[in-house]
Design a protein that fits this description.
The structure holds 2 protein chains of 2 kinds. By secondary structure, chain A is mainly alpha-helical. Chain A contains 13 helices and 2 strands, in the order H-H-H-H-H-H-E-E-H-H-H-H-H-H-H. A two-stranded antiparallel sheet of chain A has the order 1-2. Chain B is globular, with a radius of gyration of 24 Å. Classes of the chains: A mainly alpha, B alpha/beta. At the A-B interface, helix 1, helix 8 and helix 9 of A face helix 2 and strand 8 of B.
């Protein structure tokens, strides 16, 4: 009888993230001229999945009580790389996909090594590596261009059975095959423990370094998946600095919306996905309300503030003020 | 393994000439210790005597500078807590080693979770956790509960269950009972006696003399990093042991209480029908000038909430609070400390709610009084220095300087800093939440005397303690709480350990509640 209440307590942040997304998406759909058609869902899913991958990457690092300011740049770098190597025969394309994902993991692993063995503050280390990753992206693609295997791209960004957005199925598969195993592994638990109380984890003999390294590396993998998907979505590669920075900042907003605590130890990448979709909807909302483009950044900020406030509304009910600081 | 018979006396762990220095400080010097299988060995000493360092060496947290350790006859050296755990050493630390955001079951199996197909097997994990909890006598704790949601006494039981789940050969308990309720302590003792019979070697560190008298086979006393003496339990009187520990004779533990006056004292703090949701109900009492009033009962019956409610931390409280007969509304701790009210709260957990550990002793001491130490918006350094020096002298705070991090002080001195920080404001109402938890005998006595001096100077003191001896020795009256209500008020001759325990358990009412 009480089992489900413990489950609810564990999942609270994720469920609040889901609720915020559903609320915002409902407003969006209600005001969309076409309503919820397969086409609208497909576009929303494709755009949402881009941020969702980057937000999942951010969530992993935030869970260890770190922050990764290079996720957007890994996303851009892998996009540029994919626009070179994910082409040609099925075999060549497969090799390209593997190469892109490996590059993402490598970027994440480098971040992890700097933070764990270099003992650098995550925020500074990833500002530096982010600049390096963007620099490599720029060398790969000084000008926008390149191409991608269009059959694969269309399959991944299209619809299954004419209704289900393929990108959502892909995202669900990643959650099942990468996130859940990580969450249930010893390394995953060590990553949570590191974020929750590193001294206690150390005293308990937990494999802290392995856990944090795994978190950073899998974060790189997720960011790389995002970059690959961006290539499928746009058919090109572009070293766009503003875009990389934007994705980094929005990924932080997304994890907070999705109930991941910036203090570490709490939340899940699934929550970050909902947060990403909610954050994405803030932009689309302005489109359906036909807002003057000049006003869009301002209003998007306001909508984001409202969304974050909904997530923080729980604090109003706190009856012991000490809990504000926990 | 050695099979030369006589297993009861077989030394399992030996330490020979172990030393450890931190900078210029000798935390442990030429320490010797022998612990046998099937024995409970108590370690006694003041805080700062080297006990914690000794334990950390055995548990692989710090590496000794000199000396050697033998386990079952073999020389060992640990590079990490994981090494020590692999050798069969499990520790229940004074500083809790639980991860707050993980569940109880996650925490219990944390060093070696059961795995299937490379992933943690959650069914097996649940089973191990349930077994360990019931072995520790804490089957009331749900394995899925998050540790952060549990009160301190339950966390400590989880910590013990966690150590047991490792199936250790050597079990170390460092002040493991300091936050436990009396009934939990009994359960833990029963478990320890069973483990001893099963052949475990147990190292038991405690400041509570009667616990050691009940449990230990052998005792070793530490002072200033050296082992002063090892003896068979029961061969020394309490007085002799305390003398060995602090190196000086102790007179009476508690200061004398004043004779109860025929007229009730002028109430400074008065509380009428205070309520807070389900946690506090119909709380009415008063504390007069010069009175030390205790809060008793089992842990988690609303004592902490009551203190927080008075101090303006809780929202949505009902009832009336009067200070000097005038109704007041205290909306926050900063409102509680204003001149007209003059309230101070010494919090439960000095590490999180009492001190800013990385900041200096000076900064920590003046935090609560900065509003009075400023001149034209700037902190008046001279006034600050004078106020701090007065406090360091008054409380006898031992520190290498005012500009070192407060975290570098011993536990007892840290607690003195917390108290001094509030005394600097000259409060008229002093609330204390279990202020002597995990601090040494000497400092405890100083705190008792300080409380009485404050009361004699006209302050009203409300004092929650989990230690019954303390309540009996220090307080003029004790209010016993059960399920958020004051169920009994004990004073004078009626204030005995028996009466405290009986009213804390409140047996009749418990039956009624279950029936309802």
């Amino acid at each position: 009888m009480t089992e489900w209440r413990y489950w609810l307590n564990e999942q609270r942040g994720t469920l609040i993230g889901l609720a915020i997304f559903l609320m915002m998406f409902a407003v969006y759909i209600a005001n969309h001229p076409a309503g919820l058609t397969a086409n609208v869902a497909q576009t929303a899913a494709n755009k949402g999945v881009l941020l969702a991958f980057v937000a999942m990457a951010q969530a992993l690092v935030v869970i260890t009580a770190g922050i990764d300011l290079s996720v957007g740049m890994i996303f851009i770098l892998t996009n540029c790389l994919a626009s070179w190597i994910v082409v040609g025969s099925p075999l060549a394309t497969t090799a390209g996909v593997v190469g892109v994902l490996a590059a993402g993991m490598l970027c994440g692993a480098i971040n992890g090594l700097l933070v764990i063995y270099g003992r650098l503050q995550p925020i500074v280390a990833t500002i530096a590596t982010g600049a390096v990753y963007f620099g490599i992206a720029l060398l790969l693609r000084p000008f926008p261009g390149g191409s991608v295997n269009e059959d694969l791209a269309d399959a991944v960004t299209g619809r299954l059975f004419g209704v289900v957005p393929a990108s959502l199925v892909l995202l669900a598969a990643v959650v099942l095959l990468v996130w859940i195993p990580f969450r249930r592994s010893v390394a995953g638990r060590a990553a949570y423990a590191a974020g929750s109380s590193e001294p206690a984890a150390f005293m308990s003999g937990m494999p802290l370094r392995r856990g944090k390294f795994a978190a950073y590396t899998v974060a790189g993998l997720f960011a790389g998946m995002g970059g690959l998907f961006l290539t499928f979505f746009t058919y090109t590669g572009e070293a766009a600095y503003a875009s990389g920075g934007g994705y980094t900042l929005w990924s932080i907003a997304a994890v907070v919306l999705g109930g991941v605590s910036l203090y570490g130890g709490r939340g899940s990448a699934v929550g970050a996905i909902f947060g990403a979709f909610a954050a994405r909807t803030t932009g689309d909302m302005l489109f359906v309300f036909d807002v003057d483009p000049l006003w869009q950044p301002l209003l998007q900020g306001v909508v984001l503030l409202i969304a974050v406030s909904i997530g923080a509304a729980g604090l109003l009910r706190v009856r012991n003020r000490l809990e504000w600081f926990r | 393994m050695d099979t030369s018979g006589n297993t009861a006396a077989m030394p399992l762990l030996r330490m020979e000439g172990v030393s450890k220095r931190y900078g210029g400080v000798r935390a442990l010097e030429n320490a010797h210790l022998t612990v046998g299988t099937g024995r409970i060995h108590a370690i006694l000493g003041e805080n700062g005597a080297g006990k914690s360092t000794l334990i950390k060496v055995i548990a692989g947290v710090v590496e000794p500078d000199e000396g050697r350790m033998l386990l079952g006859g073999r020389t060992i050296s640990f590079r990490s807590p994981a090494d020590a755990a692999a050798a069969g050493i499990a520790c229940v630390f004074q500083e809790l080693s639980l991860i707050p955001d993980l569940s109880v079951a996650d925490n219990i199996v944390i060093s070696n979770p059961p795995r299937r197909f490379g992933m943690i097997d959650r069914v097996a994990q649940r089973r191990i956790a349930e077994e360990a909890l019931s072995r520790a006598g804490a089957a009331d704790i749900h394995p899925r509960a998050l540790v952060r949601d549990l009160p301190l006494s339950r966390r400590q039981m989880v910590e013990i269950a966690k150590a047991l789940a490792r199936q250790p050969r050597i079990l170390i308990l460092d002040e493991a009972t300091s936050a436990l309720t009396a009934s939990d302590v009994e359960k833990v003792f029963a478990v320890l006696k069973r483990l001893k019979a099963e052949g475990l070697a147990i190292l038991y560190i405690s400041h509570r003399m009667h616990e050691i008298a009940e449990l230990a086979d052998e005792c070793t006393v530490f002072r200033n990093g050296r082992n002063v003496e090892s003896y068979v339990a029961g061969t020394r009187t309490d007085g002799e042991v305390v003398e060995m520990m602090i190196g000086r004779e102790v007179s009476t533990v508690f200061p004398a209480k004043p004779e109860p006056s025929p007229d009730p004292p002028v109430p400074i703090l008065e509380c009428r029908d205070l309520g807070w949701g389900e946690r506090l109900r119909d709380i009415s009492f008063s504390v007069g000038a010069g009175e030390v009033v205790g809060l008793g009962g089992l842990d988690g019956q609303g004592q902490r909430d009551l203190l927080l409610a008075l101090f303006g931390v809780l929202r949505g409280t009902s009832g009336t609070l009067l200070v000097d007969g005038t109704p007041v509304a205290i909306a926050s701790p900063s409102a509680a400390r204003v001149a007209g009210i003059g309230m101070a709260l010494i919090p439960e957990d000095r590490k999180t709610e009492g001190l800013m550990l990385p900041m200096t002793v000076r900064e920590n001491l003046s935090f609560a009084t900065l509003d009075r130490l400023t001149k034209r918006g700037m902190i008046d350094r001279d006034a600050e220095q004078a106020a701090i020096e007065e406090m360091v002298r008054l409380l006898g705070i031992k520190t290498a300087g005012l500009d070192i991090p407060v975290g570098a002080l011993s536990g007892g001195n840290q607690q003195k800093v917390v108290i001094a920080k509030w005394l600097m404001r000259k409060p008229r109402i002093v609330l204390l939440n279990d202020p002597t938890r995990g601090i040494d005998v000497g400092t405890k006595q100083e705190i008792y005397q300080l409380l009485r001096r404050l009361a004699d100077a006209g302050a009203a003191i409300l004092f929650y303690s989990t230690d019954y001896d303390e309540l009996i020795g220090c307080c003029d009256r004790v209010l016993v709480l059960y399920d958020g209500r004051i169920v009994r008020e004990l004073q004078g001759e009626g204030l005995t350990e028996h009466a405290l325990i009986a009213s804390a358990l409140n047996v009749e009412q418990a039956d009624q509640l279950e029936g309802a």
